[in-house]
Structures are given as structure tokens and as C-alpha cells.
Amino acid sequence: MSKSNEKEIPMPSIRLAIIPILVVIIALTFSVFIFDAEPHIALFFGAATAGIVAFVHGYSWETIQSGFTESVHRAIPSLLILLIIGMIIGVWIASGIVPALMYYGFELLLPQWFLPSILILCSIMSVITGSSWTTVGTIGVAAIGVGQGLGIPAPAIAGTIVSGAFFGDKLSPMSDSTNLTPSVLGVDLYVHIKHMLFSTVPSFLIALAMYTVLGFFLAEGSADPSIVAEYQDVIMENFNLSFLLIIPPIIVIALILFKVPAIPSLIAGVVLGGIMQITVQGQSVSEFFNILYEGFSISTGWEEMDMLLTRGGMSSMYDVVSLALVALAFGGIMNRCKMLDAIVSRLSRFLKSVGNLVTTTIGTSIFLNIFSANQYLAVIIPGQMYEDCYKAKGLKFNNLTRALEAGGTLTAPLIPWNSSGAFVLSVLSVNPLAYAPYAFICWLTFIIVIFFGYKDITMDKTYEFEIE
């Protein structure tokens, strides 16, 4: 079939368009919720079904193939960044950088100021590492023990940890999701982060005030210093702490501030971390290369601490990369073969105003977070669905990527069966439904973004137009 003939192919009906989505939902229900399997195969079945539906509707294999290859091509830089992030996490733990941040961070914790202190500490840690999961799995676990020693309810502590970890993750150029989201739409990483500041900073300040008030009401008694000391003793026994360990984070932050591209900044972090690992910790070059691929592992004799510090490595990101590839293929075929257009056209009655468009974008991301159980799919598919809608209204795509992060990434840890929510539950032993009311930043942010959409606040435009 020639390309000219393909241009004449009508948009598929809504019934045809939703078949691949129904296949994904059914496959996810059985694979994730019933058999406790990974979501990759369910998304693969969805992509295959989308290809079959497109072929039956009249599209050639070349067109179907271009759909997923073009989608994956746009995300290649972020996929490479994911692999580098895996390396930097492993090296920064092995070099003592992350353990040192934990050790000295605990010195700052005070009873009445515990919750706001944890929010700030988790935010800083997440910005530096680019990983909300690493923050939750290191500082978060220790903070749960300390906070409960103060008499603060675990759900309030967990909500504060999640708020700080995911807030910092959104501002970090080293974050996998923060890199993936703008790459789906070809938005510059730093433009994306800068635009998110308009919504994330107000939500952070409001949340900080709320945690401060909440902390004074919830804190009882005084902290048991033995809880903190236990963590600090294990760190001292297994790592050499030196002021030199602050150099890599400072240099990486400086590179970020000077707008050095993400990949060179991350590579600098890997190299500097390796230098610290060899010089400060006295490990070999061979160990450095092994950790780059396999990640860091340790045996302290304390199983909980071993689980906290055993992580990272390029191989640790294979699961995320493969999931992103399959999700991009699924979304790419749906987009190229106009199935997403069919769904959007049915929703068009709700998309007449910019505020409704932003609200629908966020609602779609939350819906996919609930039914796909994965935050990457919750930003990739809506991004491709509503790309033309934002373009038609003269809105720059950084408005879309901000909405995707607010609805897709920040709500993921609030859903128990989502990969992020399941991770937090497994690490902190607090159900997401219990801590969700306390994860202020996660739901304040999307409320602010929706408000901005209706009031035409910080909505960057490609040309001037009157907002509806």
C-alpha cells in the first residue's frame, strides 16, 4: 500500500481504538494483580494487538513499524540516562557519598521539627541522587524508626518522606522519569524542570508549612538517640567518612546550574564517584568497574542495612529500560495509526478550554497509573494522546510535560498496586492509602497545575491567544 493511499485511511472507530487498551487492562489484571508478575508482557500484548488492529484497518507494516521506531527514537537519550543513573547510584553508595549524607543528615533531626526536617532532607537527597526510590530506601527507612521513637504516626512520616523524595526527584536532571517525560515530546530537559518550578515550589512551601504545624501537634517526648546511633555506627564501621565526599555532589550541582547537558553531568558524577571510591574507600579499579554494571552490595551483619545499601548498577535499570521500550512501542503505534486520535476525538467535548485540557491530561495520567500500575506508561501514552491538542491551542509542550509529571509521576506512589506505591509499601511497611493524605506535595501539585490551566497562569504559548 502506498503512503498516498494510507493518508486516505479514515480514523478508526472508537471501538477499534480501545481494543488494545482493553487488552492491556485485562492482561495487567491477570499478570500484575493476580499472578504478581511484571507488566512488561501485558504491554507487549497491547503493542502487538495495536499492530494487528492497525493492519486490519488498512495500515502497512512499514507505517506500523515507523510508529514504534519513531517513538523509541525520541526517548533514546533518556534511556541512556537511565543506564547511567544506575551506575551513579551504585558508585555513590560504594564511594561513601550516600552513606555520608545519611550520617550527617541525622544530626539535624529535632523532635518538633522532625517532619519539616525530613521533608527538606529527603528533597535534597533526591535532587542529588535523582532517585526517589533511593531516598525512600535509605533516609526513609531510618526516618520511620526515628519518627516512631518520637511518637509520630507512621503514615504521617511516610507521607512526608514520599513528598520530599518525589519533589526532589522532579527537580533533578538525574531522575529517570524527569528525563523520560520531556523526551517523549522533544522538550529540553532544563526547560521542563524550570517550568515545573512554577507548580512544585508553591506546593513545597505550602506542604512545608503544613508539616511544620503537624509536627508540633504530633511530636511527643524526645528522640531515642540509640536509634540514630545504630545507623550511624554501621555506616562508620563500613565506610570512611571524609569531607572530600561532598565534592562530587557539589560539582554535579554546579554543572547542573551552569546548564551542562544531563549526560555529561551524570558521567562526571560517575567518574568523581569512582575517584572517591578508589581513594577514600580504598577499593580497587576492578571493584569500580564491577559496581558500574552490577551495583553495590554489602554485608554488615544487619540485614536491614544490607538491603538499604545493596542497589544500583547498570543492570538494575534493565527492567525500567525494557518497560519503557515496550510502553513507547505501544504508544507509538497507537499514535501513528490514529487510534489515540479516535479516543481524543471522543473526549473532545471536554477539551474546549485550556483548563479542561489540563484537567483531562492529569485525569488520564491518574487513570493509567491506576490501571497500568506503572508511572512510565502514565506519562508516555497521555503525552502522545494530547500532543496535537496542546499544539492546536498554541501551548508549548512544556505545559503538557508539567501536567504529565503532576498527574503521572507524583500520584504513582499513592496507588498501592502501582510500582512506586508497591515499592514504598515494601520498604516502609506503610500502606499508600494510609500515607496518601499526608503526602501533601503529591496531590497539591496537580491541584495547582489545574488551577494554572483555568486561570492562564504560567501557561507558555507558541503564540498569543485568548484563553477559554
TrEMBL record:
One of its GO terms (molecular function) is antiporter activity. The keyword Lyase does not apply. Residues 164-454 form the Na+/H+ antiporter NhaC-like C-terminal domain. InterPro entries: Na/H_antiport_NhaC (IPR004770), Na/H_Antiport_NhaC-like_C (IPR018461), NhaC_Na-H+_Antiporter (IPR052180). It is found in: Cell membrane. GO terms for cellular component: plasma membrane. It is a multi-pass membrane protein. Keywords: Antiport, Cell membrane, Membrane, Transmembrane, Transmembrane helix, Transport. The chain crosses the membrane at residues 12-35, 41-59, 79-104, 110-128, 197-219, 239-258, 315-333, 354-377, 435-454. It holds the Pfam family Na_H_antiporter. Belongs to the NhaC Na(+)/H(+) (TC 2.A.35) antiporter family. This is NhaC family Na+:H+ antiporter. It comes from Natranaerovirga hydrolytica.
